[in-house]
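Assess the record.
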Amino acid sequence: MINLQINSTDLRLLLPEVIFLEADNFSQAKEMSKQARSEAQQWQTYLNYLAFFGFEKWFSERMPKQVIRRCSNTMDIITHLNIGDFKVCLIPTESLLDEVVNIPQNAISTSDLSAHFYVIVEVLEEQEQVIIQGFLRYDQLINYCTQMNSVSLHEYYQIPLSLFDNEPNHLLFYSDLLTPSSIPLPSGVSQTKTSQQLIGYVKETTTKLSRWLENFFEEGWLALDTLINAQDNFALSTRNTEVSVRRAKLIDLGMQLGNQTFALLVNITEASDDKLSLLIQLHPTSGERFLPPNLKLNLLSKAGKTLQEVQSRSQDNYIQLKPFKGEQGKRFRIEISLEDVQHGEDFEL
């Protein structure tokens, strides 16, 4: 007797929900893509429209009484639509070979762009087909990001494909039996905020420094020996510091900087006045001797007021904030930025 074991990924490949596109779909998509400014944007717009036409056909055939409306606030790599009062975010893709789905942070964190459902739509242009590969509810997505501390430094969340429900018919049941209020979305979040501030809305990841004194450390904060061993030609300057605990975290400002990483070093000690004393530095890594010029290291209050700012020069091998103290429970934020790229870390003493 032959025992066949088929996992969810195999089922997805064996039993896809295939929709065949019409010639008119391609002509409309090509016409709409001409409005994009660059060649890359034209291609993505083209895929977005094919994904929308395919999904609309699939859904309308099964739920003919539901009204589908395409929204005008479509982002570069995703497209939005409404099914009744539900908000749906389509994520067009040409390939799922790496089993990872990239979702823009703004599509999760802002009231205008978040959705009740996130649907993966694979577009096979040459085969003139669209495949509904799966979907994920907003509450399930947020729950995963919270459990995994899933904060991306490239303005995208990378979500495993296995997390998505690969039975599209379940989406039909949800849209018919649930109400939008059963899947609460964020509200009142300004789109002018930076992507890293929006991450804080999705999940408040605050590093509690007083716990470091008890040898409790959040994920990502490394002992200096571990960090030094992981880097080539890497050395941290800690002159003029008397610390009881030191930890460092690798910070990646993204592809705009060639994926160059930096080390954020935090020194903490108990001061004689029952306050905690801190020294914060930023260092280059990966064999780099100097920081890029004009790299900023800022200290912000809980309310967002800038308390300190230091900026690197042409040959600074590290920069640091002036040492400061605070009482336990006090919150602050450290921001690292270069031109339009920014990363933030929230702390509590």
About this structure: Residues 39-62 form the longest helix (24 residues).
